[in-house]
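User: Can you recover a sequence for this backbone? Please restate the input before giving your answer.

Assistant: Of course. Working from this structure:
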């Protein structure tokens, strides 16, 4: 059985989507990704995700210091991946991408994912320390009340 990449024809997709609508899709893909406090965009690139269910899907991948975000460019294939890099670091075999061979772009992407998936190995802080999420008094009060109820043995 042939791999999904070998049957993928990017020319067919390119002629299906006009260049102006393709550019607006690219901008929308990046615009709708909301970042967490402390999360920074590292790189975004057009790529092909090798989906185990629907085959090759052309889209855009965004890598931040916390996650990998992929969204398909094809309006017929609604596919979005939003995966924390720590989860990818545990088993890199789960996600497969095909990149154009532009210099060493594959190596660059791999190294960035590896760097932020294992921040301590690269002298970077854990994302939890970067984000330093702040809780308002109302949220802290709720947490303290919940802990008090648990301590009293009133919940499981």
């Amino acid at each position: 059985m042939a791999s999904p990449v070998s049957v993928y024809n990017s020319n067919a997709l390119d002629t299906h989507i006009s260049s102006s609508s393709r550019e607006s899709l690219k901008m929308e893909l990046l615009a709708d990704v909301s970042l967490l406090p402390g999360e920074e965009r590292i790189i975004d690139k057009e790529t092909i995700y090798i989906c185990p269910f629907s085959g090759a899907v052309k889209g855009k991948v965004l890598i931040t210091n916390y996650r990998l975000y992929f969204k398909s460019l094809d309006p017929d294939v609604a596919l979005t991946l939003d995966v924390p890099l720590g989860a990818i670091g545990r088993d890199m075999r789960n996600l497969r991408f095909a990149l154009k061979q532009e210099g060493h772009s594959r190596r660059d992407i791999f190294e960035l994912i590896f760097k932020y998936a294992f921040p301590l190995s690269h002298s970077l802080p854990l994302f939890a320390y970067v984000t330093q999420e702040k809780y308002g008094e109302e949220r802290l009060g709720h947490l303290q009340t919940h802990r008090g109820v648990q301590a009293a043995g009133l919940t499981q």
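That completes the design. Residues 1-20 have pLDDT under 50 and may be disordered.
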